[in-house]
Structures are given as structure tokens and as C-alpha cells.
Amino acid sequence: MPDAACGALIVCDGEGKIVRVRNHGLLEDGDAFAGAYFATLFSTDCMPQALDIMVRLPKEGFVAAGMLSLKRETRASGVMVSGFQDGRQSFLLLHAMSDSSFARGRASEDAFFREITLLNSELANARRTLVKQNIQLQQLSEEKDRMVGIVSHDLRNPLTSILGYSHLLMKHRREDDGSEAQMLRYICEASDYMVSIIKDFLDISMISLGKLHLNLEKSNLAEILNNVVAMDRMLAAPKNITIALDMPENMPAIRLDVNKIMQVANNLIANAIKFSPCGSGIDILVNCDGDALRVSVSDKGPGIPLDEQHKLFKPFSQTSIRGAGGEKGSGLGLSICSNIIKAHKGEIGCISEPGKGSTFWFSLPLAGSEGNPAKDE
Questions:
Q1: What is the DSSP string of 280-332?
Q2: Contacts from 24-33 at CB under 8 Å and sequence distance 24+?
Q3: Buried b / exposed e along 212-236 (16+ C-beta atoms within 10 A)
Q4: What parts of the chain have a pLDDT lower than 70?
């Protein structure tokens, strides 16, 4: 017969399977039960009660059952069973006592149950407080995102005016006034930078609020990329950077949001220009990859250290690598790209090695494939 201290603590997953056993003299081999269902520890007659415990735990949080009979491979014929739920795991205590010591131990057993009940109550209260705080944090986050969107929208219009007028002054400035030209150039560059940041803030606030909507239409990706590359070649010209675009002929049509995919392609190419040294080249490769079209943008920049690559595609996260000309960014561009591509049911990633440049890529499912967003319409 077991003594009053004989027992076991069993941890089960959400399906009722045993994942961990702390054996205290009750089970012949506690590890042998890993992966088995909790109810299989008990005799056929008591198995329904054991199943009932596992059903009640997620609903009630704490369960204390009477004496249940165990199978022969245990060192006691019966055990008291109690347990509580924490997250997706159940913690069950099996406490065995001999017939002669059962009466003497009942008082301490009841005290133990009361303590467990009190602890479970405190845990439930703490969980309710945590849920309430999470709701409040979510509301504050949404309010913050709305405020960022409002402020960014209000700032964009006057900044766009400043940018337009400064470009107009640059166009009509006197050729012999070098200092005036320099000041106008500073105004244009600063305005460009601020407008780009505001656009990023507007995009990320809409994404955070779950308001990223796609205007899907069957489109020609080749035409989109040709237009983006034509614009970005002008951006690359001052650094004497060449951009080569390699695409297969007769690419299949694909359902996408034209403006959003142009935004992604432009961001990846602009980043490649930013980090590429003068006189280098950028290669853009498009190829079919199973049921998807894959676009890769490769540069000959400094590359990204492996221990910093986890920062990519996260909002407001930047690596230690700076642009070849010291250019700055908001740390939002790649995060926005990632959200746009994921909304298209596509994938995005980076392959990079310090000293050997970087390749940023994204893939979009072909029209008619299982992953294509058209399937959800």
C-alpha cells in the first residue's frame, strides 16, 4: 500500500495528452505515459470520470474529483484527482493514500484542495485583470494609430505645397546664384524626406487599424515593373547606377492591386539604389516559381549582418547599415511592403551576406492558384 505522500503531477496539452509527469512514487515508470491520453491511466469503469475532468477543466478552471481507480501498472488502486487549467495546459494532481491512512489524511487533503482553489481563484482574477489591461492597451494603440493618421494627413498637404513650390523655384532660379541653388536644394531634399515619412506613417497607421484594402484586378506584372524601373532609373542616374530588368516573355496574368505592387517594387529598388555604391549595378529578375511569380532585386551594397536580419520587415526597426550617401529612412518601408505582399497571399524575404550585397524578393500567386487572393472574393 502506498503512503500518504504517494502521488504524481501530470501536465496535459489542450487535447488531453500527457506531455510531462512529475512522479512521486505512484507510477511504475512516469515517462512511459508521455503522449498517452490522461484518461487511459484509469480503469475502464473510471475512464468516463477522467474524461469528464478534462472536459470541465477548460470551462471551470479548477476541478476536484473523488477517488478514481487506476490501472495495474500503478502502485495504488485508487487516487484523489484535482487539477487546474493554465492557458492551454492542464495540471492534474493524483494523490494516493492507503485505506488506513485515508481517514487521517482527509483533513489535510481538504486543506490542500482549499489552497488549490484559492490559488486558482487568484490566478483567474489575475487573468481577468490582464485581459482588461490588454483591451485597454488595444484601445490606446488604435487611438494612437488614428491620431498618427490624422496628424500625418494634416501635415501632408502643406508639405506637398512646400515641395511643389521649392521645385518650381529650382526650375526658374538664376543660373549664377550658387548659394540660392544650394538652399533650394536643401529645401527640396528635406521636403522630399518629410513627405516620404508622412506617406509611410499614413500607410502603417492604416495597416495597424486593419484598413489595408486591395483593389484587385487581373494585371500585367511586366508592364508594372517596366514603369517602376523607368522612374527609378532617373533616381539612380546621379549615382551612375544601372538597373537591369530580366523577365520572361509572355508572363501569365496575375490578380493584384497595381498601385500597391508598384509601391513594393519601388521601395525595394529605391533601397537598392540607396545602399549601392556609385557606378554599380542593380539586377531585377522575374521568374515563375511553381504557382507564383517571383521578383528579386539584387544590389552590390555592403550586405546585412546575419544577426541583424531579423530586424527586417518589422516597423520602426533599422539595421546598423547606412546608405552609401548617408541616406536616412523611417524604418517603415519594408514593414509596409511585407503587409502588402501578405495581403496578396504572397511571400517576401531577403538573402544577404556582408560584403556581397543583398537580394530582396517577393512572390505573388498566379491567378487561379490556391493562394491567390481572388479565391477569397
A1: -EEEEEEEEETTEEEEEEE--S----GGGGGGTTSTT---S---TT-----S-
A2: 25/75, 26/2, 26/74, 26/75, 26/76, 26/79, 26/94, 26/96, 27/73, 27/74, 27/75, 28/73, 28/74, 28/75, 29/73
A3: beeebeebebbebbeebbeebbeeb
A4: 1-5, 72-77, 97-120, 144-157, 174-178, 189, 193, 196-197, 200, 204-206, 208-209, 323-331, 367-377
Q: Exposed, middle or buried: residue 3 (CB in 10 Å: 0-12, 13-18, 19+)?
A: exposed
Place of cell 487572393: 373
Beta strands at 281-289 and 242-246: parallel, antiparallel or unpaired:
parallel
One-letter amino acid for residue 359 of the chain: T
- In the chain the domains, ranked by start, together with CATH numbers, are 7-133 (3.30.450.20), 142-208 (1.10.287), 217-376 (3.30.565.10)
Alpha helix stretches (DSSP H) within the chain = 47-60, 99-171, 178-208, 221-236, 258-275, 333-343
Beta-bridged to residue 340, according to DSSP, are none
Q: Is 25 helix (H, G, I), strand (E, B) or coil?
A: strand
Would the pTM of this model clear 0.70, i.e. be above it? Answer: no
Q: Which residues pair with 78 in a beta bridge?
A: 69
Neighbour count for residue 112 (Cβ, 10 Å): 16
**pLDDT at residue 66, as a whole number:** 72
Do 373 and 322 touch, CB atoms closer than 8 A? Answer: no
**Contact between residue 109 and residue 116 where contact means Cβ atoms under 8 Å apart:** no
Say what the pLDDT of residue 1 is: 44
* Residue showing cell 498618427: 148
Contact 338, 346 (CB under 8 A): no
How open is the CA angle 347-350-355, to the nearest 5 degrees? 170
Tell me: the pLDDT tens digits for 38-55?
A: 998 888 888 999 999 888
Separation CA 246–CA 249 (nearest Å)? 10
DSSP string, 214-264: ---EEE-HHHHHHHHHHHHHHHHGGGT-EEEEE--SSPPPEEE-HHHHHHH
